[in-house]
């Protein structure tokens, strides 16, 4: 299997960057859920390229067409399929990658995996463009979650070493996440945007790219969701969030910071607050033993620098099996971190809706 | 679901710390695989407590009894079940946690998840003791992988800020991993052991604990294993490795380090070496687009400090719903990082055997 | 879950009878498989209505549009999505079924299941029209199987009590199945067609419908495919074949006939034939202990009479909760058995390709 | 995969007939469910051999030992594992089957499937003895279902052509099923027992065996359970019920009888009865479009005659690859239909508990 995910509400994503179209089927959605398609399109717009100078110049008109599962503004309960036509593709740009795999890309392992039969134009099924249907699916799921009091949002935690103010893992609020989740280049500290954009522009001028970190949170998830061992919240969320290209690491709560702490610092003490059980800190990111504590769920994803750079790079010729040089042409985004935020929020939404369904809470 | 994992070779783990017994069923193993049970026991011994002063004084005689699936030293192809009897348990130690959840433990979310019916003695099903059957299962799988040229090993990358020499992600060798995978407290730089043990002892004397990082590698995995999107190597490995208690973050290759790199630094250039396609660096940890490149697979896991500490901590009384104080008694390991290494190696082995099976390579 | 199926090669079917479109995603197909789309269309034509007087007058132009996973006549290995637009729909026919559930239809349980939000026009997602994408998926899979020497075909074993000559379960040949699988109203004894059509016409004139039996076989499946207990060939095939609407029973080999036999009659003795191990009879339908014997696989499915009949029937008003009378208008096929044959062949193909993949034989 | 089943509540069965032990793990059971272990043992006793002259003389003391997941008479929510030790085995009886596969048995396909490494003693993992843990699992699940108003029971519908009175599919009652489900050789018409036993004894004296039909019903399942296409009640129940050895056909409601009916006869008209929506007939067996109607669920399974017969049979020598003769010695039951009834009831219980869980109804 590959591009299908989910044990309760399943998504099946299809499409190749320069093929006829891309899309997604959502199977087993609850029936009768109102979905605001304008809100879905706003999420997709956050992910779309061409929003500003720093992103790829390719313009997409990524309006999904709903083929099924949706009637009179509500889910019917039958599989919901959305298709996005591919237009504005320039396949000629990618001619030489068939023989000369781009460093940092899936070209070479994809060639081996598919015996050379995969569609390499524009990255084919590996293209970041496939995150459009993922974002669509997540945007549908997050509306269903919102109706159950669960809010998801994220921000650009870091780009090229410039750091945004991290989430207050105890007090991050629904209102804060809702506000972040409506904008492009979401930041807790808006003043960091200029510095981050300067780093991106500097890389672009050097024919290079930069990476960063996205931090995503969810509030309103009740305590008791998830399971020990292999259906823990971390297992489930990471098994879908690694589906977002360029993600090479995920950490929950304080994450790798725990390596340097003592137990007395890392443990989150409990306290009663207005009759509710809460923790004073939230180093566990809202998850203990794989199960939610009722505190905010916080996860950070590292997004590696865009692999497609215009600088000349060393590679090999797959046919002649000799060393070679490669310069990648075409339209490429020198930093995809801002666009990765809504995609990761969407992946989290799909993960959480499955975790809730598993507990019979949908 | 919860304690069952695997799409091709499935494991189903059962047991509670102070119940009758714990164990695992491995379903769909290939038939006719010779398994050296002494080698399996050596892996289990690496995980077992009581190996040195720094670990819990509880002595376990964790000799698994094979009930099925194994005949004349070979797998029969039918489900292989191994059971470990529970002995040497002192349930009285855990009396007060039923009402007073331990900070950093699953007590509170577990109470909500199971409505108070779960067996809390010794942590019940959440106990680190459940990593014994996981290690058994992994020790079986790694022998099958070894026969296909795949070697897995790991080391203590850091404890309480003291760092071991990391793996050379390009040149880490089968021999190096084989040697590491036979010893307790595995290190690339043996001289770090003293300093690490001092940190652990200092924590213990403070009635506290310390965390760290385990780094695990596999060599010999052929290129072309894994799939884009949701059956990528990162997705699959993380969905099982988060099953190891105390793991709060996972990163592949350079991981979070990629956030500060440019694409020209992060991309791994290709080169021909003795007729083989290799990368000059391996920042991707042997995985691009979810698929193996043929280079070593490298993953790092942060292991949070042991939650059970003897210091008094703030908690709440779940019945009276008021604030309370708690001192955890009992036998607890002030640092579980060395023991987590073989468990994480095992989880990786189970993950990799499924990934190979998915490609028809078993 | 619901309309997604498959552990190795997954299909996800979507669409509603009178919605925008219907279709299917096939995930994890092997790459580089040539698919003859004309042959696919021929299979879809066998299923399509409007072929003769006895079938529904609705004309469908069910030409699927391939959106992904297919390039230069071959599978790319990425998910293959095919979409069929819905045209020629007359929703007015179905107005009263929202309140008055049709006997024998899914209207009432569907109403409860989906809380009244499901699209009931034309049967919505329950429509027999959803077998079009299933047939597409099966037609793709059977070409891949054919390349591995596996031939699938079926015939109308009975309609309204008129019986065709059953398959010779020992000697049914690839050539016989290939010939049957290219025609509409496939029969071993062509002379039975007139009598069967007379029964259908008689039912039609009585504003009624008739049922029957489809018998499907596969030859060329090697011995050793399948597993004991829950991944047996019978389990897997029935779990997909019951997805064909109107199927209410499945039997393998001699099936229910075994109830009246003695073991000495039912057991299939072995013999050597040209150096091959074969059975002299094939009462087991090519499956013992869930595993193939290498002999033909034979399964029979009962197809109940079409539920939509024009005769007045007793029903209830779901809103007023009182008894009511209902006459179903619209275009309905008085017998769907001939059209069910290619659908069941397709379901078997999808089942078998998964069983082969499970054993690493694709 | 093979001996693991279930998408929500998973069972993983292990063991071989003459190995150390057999058993089952039930993963993801709801917590806090009281289980009456005496009632479980009564179900296992119904399945056990040695109950009367007609069954195998082997005496089993199949008392399962619960290793986990059960505390103070209630489920803990953690995996529940039960182990049955193997005793009283006589492996010598089975010596020659390694080379001479028994007709009607899994010996030959099992040999191919497992490359000759499977444990053939007593049938190994293919043994009917593996239905003991399946019955245990089902006996646990049916108690949980009973608490939700769902009653399951069955009877011997036919043996060697002697037919019991079938269930009244409209009016079969909870009390009737409860009574049947507590006895050995359950019949609606007790007077048929003598004739059936005579047929069995006649076969035994001829060194032969007889087959039959088991009919199983469930009442109290609410309307709206199940899904169209591939998670229909028929799909789910058949995917587990074919796990019972010797079952070669399953039909729901009137099943194959529908082939000879007209739609006007087969359709079940609705009526209001005491404010409830019911059907006047129940030819659909309580399932339409894969979804429950709220009427009794009725399924019939054909159980082929016991394959192990003492008569000399034709076979082949797997090593020498020549024709051979075989006489099966050992203890064999000339008719397993009565013992299959509780096993099929158990399989139905496990199927139904998953279907309920899928709808969030547990």
The gist of it:
Chains A, B, C, D: Keywords: Amino-acid biosynthesis, Aromatic amino acid biosynthesis, FAD, Flavoprotein, FMN, Lyase, NADP. Four copies of one chain form a homotetramer. With 362 residues, chain A is α+β, with helices and mostly antiparallel strands.
Please tell me how large the radius of gyration of chain A is.
21 Å
For the residues shown, what is the average pLDDT of chain A? 94
User: What oligomeric arrangement do these chains adopt?
Assistant: homotetramer
Distance between the termini of chain A: 26 Å
Number of strands of chain A: 18
Count of helical stretches of chain A: 8
Helix/sheet category of chain A = alpha+beta
SSE string of chain A:
EEEHEEEEHHEEHHEHEHEEEEEEEH
Q: Main sheet of chain A?
A: 5 strands, antiparallel
Envelope shape of chain A: globular
The helix content of chain A is 25-40%
Uncertain parts of chain A: none
Largest interface, counted by CB within 8 Å of the partner chain's CB: A-B, 110 and 110 residues
For the biggest β-sheet of chain A, the strand order reads 1-2-3-7-4
Strand content of chain A: 15-25%
List the topology elements:
Four copies of one chain form a homotetramer.
Chain A: E1 4-5, E2 10-15, E3 21-27, H1 37-47, E4 65-68, E5 70-71, E6 74-75, E7 80-85, H2 107-114, H3 131-146, E8 151-159, E9 162-163, H4 174-180, H5 192-205, E10 212-219, H6 233-241, E11 247-252, H7 263-266, E12 270-273, E13 276-279, E14 287-288, E15 291-292, E16 297-303, E17 312-317, E18 322-327, H8 337-358
Antiparallel strand pairs in A: 1-2, 2-3, 3-7, 4-7, 5-6, 8-9, 8-10, 10-16, 11-16, 12-13, 14-15, 17-18
